[in-house]
Amino acid sequence: MKIILLGYMGSGKTTLGEAIAHLKNIPFIDLDSYIAEGENLSVQEIFSSKGEIYFRKKETLYLKELLQKEEDFILSLGGGTPCFGNNMALIKEATSLSIYLKYQPKTLARRLIKEKPHRPLLSEINDADLEDFIRKHLFERNPFYMQANYIISMDNLTEEESINEIVKIL
């Protein structure tokens, strides 16, 4: 059982993935952390020193590596992972348990505003422009996100309710 959590940055993929992995007693993997470990650099350092194109190529390479493993796990993707290369096709081929954690732009902006310094794609965005930036990004990414096997509208759910919704799918 490979469970893939996808969605925009700040949608809780890592937090929920860790909680569900603990409940189901299976390993949890955060793709960004896996890449950082493999490259010996943080994602932010990779973006700033080698650029986004380099990062996206490595992201696909590490995603393939993980999806080819035999063991069960929960994998939290980076927000852009499904949108580059043939990543969504690789995910769909490897599992029928891809779950899109869907939020409205206003909610994401509220969740992300404090995290901007740690988010390479957001660090230079003015606070007043954040929601519009997210809205544009979601417009571009939604065709990929919507290919997930399951979509959960997250805006009005507590963390516990979110976990329960995901567990129902499994």
Automatic annotation (TrEMBL):
It is an enzyme of class 2 (transferase). Its cofactor is Mg(2+). Mg(2+) binds at T14. This is Shikimate kinase. GO terms for molecular function: ATP binding; magnesium ion binding; shikimate kinase activity. Gene3D superfamilies: P-loop containing nucleotide triphosphate hydrolases. Monomer. Transmembrane segments: none annotated. ATP binds at G10, S11, G12, K13, T14, T15, R119. Substrate binds at D32, R56, G79, R141. Pfam families: SKI. Binds 1 Mg(2+) ion per subunit. Its main location: cytoplasm. It comes from Capnocytophaga ochracea (strain ATCC 27872 / DSM 7271 / CCUG 9716 / JCM 12966 / NCTC 12371 / SS31 / VPI 2845) (Bacteroides ochraceus). GO terms for cellular component: cytosol. Pathway: Metabolic intermediate biosynthesis; chorismate biosynthesis; chorismate from D-erythrose 4-phosphate and phosphoenolpyruvate: step 5/7. Coiled coil: none annotated. Belongs to the shikimate kinase family. Catalyzes the specific phosphorylation of the 3-hydroxyl group of shikimic acid using ATP as a cosubstrate. Its EC number is 2.7.1.71. HAMAP family: Shikimate_kinase. It catalyses: shikimate + ATP = 3-phosphoshikimate + ADP + H(+). Keywords: Amino-acid biosynthesis, Aromatic amino acid biosynthesis, ATP-binding, Cytoplasm, Kinase, Magnesium, Metal-binding, Nucleotide-binding, Transferase. GO terms for biological process: amino acid biosynthetic process; aromatic amino acid family biosynthetic process; chorismate biosynthetic process.
